[in-house]
């Protein structure tokens, strides 16, 4: 099973993992602190999932948002989140389709792919398409885990395909292909106690390992369990676990576009 299918088959498990990572709060803070939304009026999210970050952007900053999301489950949850946040007037587009099928009706000041580029791998045509979604002075931001991130270490031995792309690999490939960009590290840190306890993993840690490895904990071999523990321990920085992610910023006002 490809990760995209696994992702859609177990949305509740994914939601639980994202909540544990505190990704909505940390990602939103990163976007604001880095000034990535400055001077922007419209934001396109590619593979928005349930759109928690995107809804936060609309509610807190008043930016207009547009999303592309192929999963009916996540799309429905996104629409519910929009209604509950009261930002319907700021939702300019909602496309329930794949990015491959998406035909952008306009250009956007900022295009985001927040942990969704797994689905596209090293596809030159799709990167060009994403870049073309930007306004003349717009930006494209792609975030993925680094190769040293605990999530990437566990994903390396996942039973599911389509989850092994890292920000490092994408960045190196993009530069070789002539796509200049800035590369920044976003640190999504959580307390050690969320995943680690004396002698092993907490239930939340087991959930994380099981989801990324696409293998229920009670079906994991001792070797796989130990590898999962070591992967999470590798991300320990003092009293925190760092889920470091690399962010590729393609700024139309700064970087020449590849042909």
Automatic annotation (TrEMBL):
Cited InterPro entries: SAM-dependent_MTases_sf (IPR029063)
Q: Which domain of life is it from?
A: Bacteria
Pfam families from the entry?
Answer: Methyltransf_23 (PF13489)
Per its record, how is this protein called by name?
Methyltransferase domain-containing protein
Q: Which organism is it from?
A: Blastopirellula retiformator
């Amino acid at each position: 099973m490809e990760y995209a299918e696994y992702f859609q088959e177990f949305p509740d498990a994914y939601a639980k993992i994202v909540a544990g990572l505190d990704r909505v709060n940390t990602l939103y803070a990163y976007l604001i602190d880095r000034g990535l939304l400055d001077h922007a009026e419209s934001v396109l999210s590619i593979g928005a999932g349930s759109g928690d970050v995107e809804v936060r952007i609309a509610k807190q900053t008043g930016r207009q948002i547009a999303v592309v999301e192929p999963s009916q489950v996540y799309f429905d949850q996104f629409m519910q989140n929009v209604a509950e946040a009261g930002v319907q007037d700021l939702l300019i587009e909602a496309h329930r389709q794949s990015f491959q099928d998406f035909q952008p009706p306009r250009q956007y000041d900022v295009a985001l792919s927040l942990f969704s580029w797994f689905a596209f791998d090293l596809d030159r045509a799709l990167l060009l398409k994403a870049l073309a979604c930007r306004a003349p002075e717009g930006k494209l931001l792609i975030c993925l885990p680094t190769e040293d991130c605990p999530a990437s270490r566990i994903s390396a031995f996942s039973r599911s395909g389509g989850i092994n792309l890292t920000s490092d690999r994408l960045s190196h490939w993009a530069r070789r292909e002539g796509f200049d960009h800035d590369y920044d590290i976003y640190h999504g840190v959580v307390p050690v106690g969320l995943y680690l306890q004396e002698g092993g993993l907490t239930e939340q840690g087991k959930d994380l390992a099981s989801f990324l490895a696409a293998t229920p904990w009670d079906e994991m071999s001792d070797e796989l369990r130990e590898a999962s523990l070591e992967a999470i321990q590798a991300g320990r920085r003092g009293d925190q676990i760092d889920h470091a992610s690399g962010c590729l910023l393609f700024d139309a006002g700064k970087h020449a576009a590849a042909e």
